Amino acid sequence: QVQLVTSGGGLVQAGDSLRLSCAAAGLAFSAYDMGWFRQAPGKEREFVAHITRSGSITHYSESVKGRFTISRDNAKNTVDLQMNSLKPEDTAIYFCAASLPGIVPGSSNYQHWGQGTQVTVSS
């Protein structure tokens, strides 16, 4: 059974940083591209970042580019999202997701999804 367990969310002030982590189990982690998505109250889920299985290529949404960094450790089966210069509009539940290679980064066709972690940024 595939499990993606996210952690690291919390309540911070605008301008602060947070680091989210997603620990994977039950899949050949190094064979999967990984993504981060978020969903704010009353809004649709949106793409945040994507990293290829080797970690050599990353993609970001325009709203987080330059502030967020996605990284992975294939030895530890983890993918992280370092979030700097947080803004109130970053408030959302953040999800990690796994996909076999070939997926269009940011599409909804990831095969496995984590349960999400809440990030709240106060102004």
Any chance you could write out the topology, listing elements then pairs?
Elements: E1 3-7, E2 10-13, E3 18-25, E4 33-39, E5 46-51, E6 58-60, E7 68-73, E8 78-83, E9 92-99, E10 112-113, E11 117-122
Parallel strand pairs: 2-11
Antiparallel strand pairs: 1-3, 3-8, 4-5, 4-9, 5-6, 7-8, 9-10, 9-11
Give an overview in words:
Helices cover 0% and strands 50% of the residues. The protein contains no helices and eleven strands. The chain is globular and about 40 Å long. The mean pLDDT is 96. The relative contact order is 0.31. Strand 5 and strand 6 form a beta hairpin. The chain is mostly beta strands. It has strands at 3-7, 10-13, 18-25, 33-39, 46-51, 58-60, 68-73, 78-83, 92-99, 112-113, 117-122. Strands 2, 4, 5, 6, 9, 10 and 11 form a seven-stranded mixed beta sheet that branches. Strands 1-3-8-7 form a four-stranded antiparallel beta sheet, with no helix packed on it. The N and C termini lie far apart (40 Å).
Question: Total helix count?
Answer: 0
**Runs with pLDDT <50, length 5+?**
none
Q: Name the beta content range.
A: over 45%
Computed over alpha carbons, the radius of gyration is 13 Å
Total beta strands:
11
Proportion in helices:
under 10%
Q: How would you classify the helix and strand content by structural class?
A: mainly beta
Report the order of strands and helices: EEEEEEEEEEE
- Mean pLDDT figure: 96
Query: What is the molecular shape?
Result: globular
Distance between the termini: 40 Å
Q: Please give the largest β-sheet.
A: 7 strands, mixed
